[in-house]
Amino acid sequence: MSTSVQQRGTAYDPSRIRHPHFRGLVTDAASAVEQIADGDTVAISGFASAGTPKAFAPALAERIRSVRAAGGRLSVNLLTGASVASEAEAMLAEVDGIALRMPYQSEPTARGKINSGEMDYVDVHLSHVAQQVWQGHYGDVDVAVVEVAAITEDGKLVPAMSVGNNKTWLDVADKVILEVNSWIPDGVEGMHDIYYGTALPPQRRPIMLSRADDRIGQPLLEVDPAKVVAVVPTDQRDSASALTKPDAVSEAIAGHVLEFFQHEVAGGRMPAGSLLPLQAGIGNVANAVLAGLAAGSFSDLTCYSEVIQDSMLQLIREGTVAHASATALALSEDGLTELVDNFELYRDHITLRPQEISNHPEIVRRLGIVGMNGMLEADVYGNVNSTHVGGTRIMNGIGGSGDFTRNGYVSMFLSPSTAKNGAVSAIVPMVPHVDHTEHDVQVIVTEHGLADLRALSPRKRSRLVVDRCADPAFRPLLHDYLDRAEARPDAGNTPHILEDAFSFHAGLAATGSMLG
Amino acid sequence: MSTSVQQRGTAYDPSRIRHPHFRGLVTDAASAVEQIADGDTVAISGFASAGTPKAFAPALAERIRSVRAAGGRLSVNLLTGASVASEAEAMLAEVDGIALRMPYQSEPTARGKINSGEMDYVDVHLSHVAQQVWQGHYGDVDVAVVEVAAITEDGKLVPAMSVGNNKTWLDVADKVILEVNSWIPDGVEGMHDIYYGTALPPQRRPIMLSRADDRIGQPLLEVDPAKVVAVVPTDQRDSASALTKPDAVSEAIAGHVLEFFQHEVAGGRMPAGSLLPLQAGIGNVANAVLAGLAAGSFSDLTCYSEVIQDSMLQLIREGTVAHASATALALSEDGLTELVDNFELYRDHITLRPQEISNHPEIVRRLGIVGMNGMLEADVYGNVNSTHVGGTRIMNGIGGSGDFTRNGYVSMFLSPSTAKNGAVSAIVPMVPHVDHTEHDVQVIVTEHGLADLRALSPRKRSRLVVDRCADPAFRPLLHDYLDRAEARPDAGNTPHILEDAFSFHAGLAATGSMLG
């Protein structure tokens, strides 16, 4: 069979499929997706820009088109690690191929379908996904489609450039399609730590990980060969994450964060030099903050995060970061090239884990993680909206921000103080959607400054957030709101004027600016 | 010195103070509180109705009055486990003796001072308190005042009827005042499990507790004798928690919860018979739910919770509950008598732990806790307001509800569907304060029914919450809101009409009813 498949495409590399049973299953993507039926729940690999199966989405989209052309029906429930490669997300959304999407997306076509009510979207903490699927909340997983770097002589799987929920998908799915991507450098083997010790309660036991570089699992994924229905060879580079060079705003934010770290060290709340394990969300601001660490007097830093961005490679290369743990790479074209060209250097300093471990509440609490995440907006009392523009339209999703914020040691949210050329303030009287509550948000940072909300009552927080973080153009409006709210006879512990609480958002809708 | 003290009061019982150093420190409360200076941070024992120092609050209130009468100033920052005995809270609030209060209160006088802005209040997850104080967010703790049952021959402390943060208070305070309460039955000794293994990062290690009845610590508290400045004998019963008999509404809620448990067992998500460890918040509804378990086909149930209420004693006596772990007792007069009269029976089935362990995210996640907490109101998408009436006026505080909701296995919120004789709906279009987000709230229950929100997108959740949980009188208003919100061109993933989102609350303010 392998001979015939070799004829089908150039991707087939026998050195990547080293077990005869799996060689016998080699086929192309078009044949593989015939395993997928209308209404199936399909769980695929992919976390951020890394590890999305390359052949699956084009083949499924094509199959959906042809089934529909013949008068049939075909759409699926799609489960992933987090976001997947944009082109894959877009292809399936464009053909209305996804009935339900879980747990995260960040792609315009899918976003549009969700906001118009055409696609069901369940926006879930990334640490909860594996346990919820295992519990059966999403029904049976019919098919798993997982990209791997290779299949070993004894039928184990060398993981690709992300781990995400792949361990769980392989465990729970009725059928498995493997994509074996020859582009992935051989050098990736050994970078992963796949932990097979999780369970559903009452069988759970302590997870014995106490440092970012601890290894508690094995380098390879397991799969029951009897469940594998197709092996699809591919040879395609991972997508690149879009990254821009740090600008003045993100550098100013980074400066405030670094000053805060020095303040924490001086106060004895973080060890000098090594600090505590850092987590940074995806994006330009987080990338800039990490890049800024190179200028600090830090050494032996560790990161325990979801993704590894370009700046992390630089910090490892320079020796500022001793170890980075994540569940996926999220590198630009240049970053990907840097990694692939220097795998020997990076492999000893990077560990990729299942996202149930990278984001696990037990580990996040134990390690004392410093969580740094982006946001859409915060209100004056420290409630954060990460997901819903105007309270109604989803942007991406909560992702792992809640995992790190809720159980971390220091929970920080970073954002430019304005958007849309100054028309939109990131600091508002009341957020119309809350993803992180005032009980959890400890520090807010914009380019103007940093508000440390720890141990402060709501009335003390509010003035601090305005004076430190809001753009000066919005400060008079925010103080006026607070003055009026506090002057009411029933002002209460958290003064608000409900009829004016969304005045910034109403102004934006009516005039195109929160300045009204 | 002990002789002279014996003359001061009848409370002194030498068998309770079995170490000569501590006998030498015996004094009365009036003398003890002279150790407290204006601006001090004072951390006291007490969690719910159990373990509040009995002599401290009256003595401090009296001292505040006399200091002020002499033209002086005296107020303190007061840290506790959670709520303390109402009479103690009220006494100190009445004399404006508290500048800052943390982490929880549930008493009318204190509530009034907080809502008028006269008292600063920091409303903190109970699992975070010890680590935040240890980190120094509240400055130095000048004085700890801790009730104990006895001081042993080797200078260790037999804990009282609650543990709370006492271990941390004794560790971090500069000076310690011990109240030795002879009323506490000798039989309490051995009921506690005080874990000394927590640390600040990066020194944290796994906490090796995997079952509700595991013991990982020691029965006694430690104190540095050099820090103890006074030992005050008392002989006074703990306060009683107010409990009413289950009424029809709370019994209906309990019925829906029991049916849900059967549904989970049938779905293979919980073990038959023993279920998973249960947590129930304080109050009549939680008490009724637990009482209802006696009627189910359950055995060997375990509870891993904050408090133990009356119904738990009944379940233990009947053999339905094998073990209950908590940080405090919250018993009625009758419950307290039942416990004290039968300590031999209950001691083997109850473990009292520090609240950093009873509410610890690591343990809550590992055990797979079923969290059941009360609420003020929920919105149609599953966001819950636990703390702020009308979004501004604090009721009590978040307490431990977030600890169990965020990291638990099933997160449930229970409430009667209406309050104020039907004028107030517990289901509203949008809550004006969010303590638990849509990402965390899984199940909402009122007397009308149960809405299981797991794996549902916002638009599917909203109709279910209205139809299952809202009072029929409010359903047309809620559906009308959703109809109008969903009909908007920019309805989005979570349809809302910001200018109408608080119409229920505006109606209540204007007319005295959310029916408008």
UniProtKB/TrEMBL annotation, chains A, B:
<dbReference type="InterPro" id="IPR038460">
    <property type="entry name" value="AcetylCoA_hyd_C_sf"/>
</dbReference>
<dbReference type="Pfam" id="PF02550">
    <property type="entry name" value="AcetylCoA_hydro"/>
</dbReference>
<dbReference type="InterPro" id="IPR037171">
    <property type="entry name" value="NagB/RpiA_transferase-like"/>
</dbReference>
<feature type="domain" description="Acetyl-CoA hydrolase/transferase N-terminal">
    <location>
        <begin position="25"/>
        <end position="233"/>
    </location>
</feature>
<keyword id="KW-0808">Transferase</keyword>
<dbReference type="InterPro" id="IPR017821">
    <property type="entry name" value="Succinate_CoA_transferase"/>
</dbReference>
<protein>
    <submittedName>
        <fullName>Succinate CoA transferase</fullName>
    </submittedName>
</protein>
<dbReference type="Pfam" id="PF13336">
    <property type="entry name" value="AcetylCoA_hyd_C"/>
</dbReference>
<dbReference type="InterPro" id="IPR026888">
    <property type="entry name" value="AcetylCoA_hyd_C"/>
</dbReference>
<dbReference type="InterPro" id="IPR046433">
    <property type="entry name" value="ActCoA_hydro"/>
</dbReference>
<comment type="similarity">
    <text>Belongs to the acetyl-CoA hydrolase/transferase family.</text>
</comment>
<dbReference type="InterPro" id="IPR003702">
    <property type="entry name" value="ActCoA_hydro_N"/>
</dbReference>
<dbReference type="GO" id="GO:0016740">
    <property type="term" value="F:transferase activity"/>
</dbReference>
<feature type="domain" description="Acetyl-CoA hydrolase/transferase C-terminal">
    <location>
        <begin position="335"/>
        <end position="481"/>
    </location>
</feature>
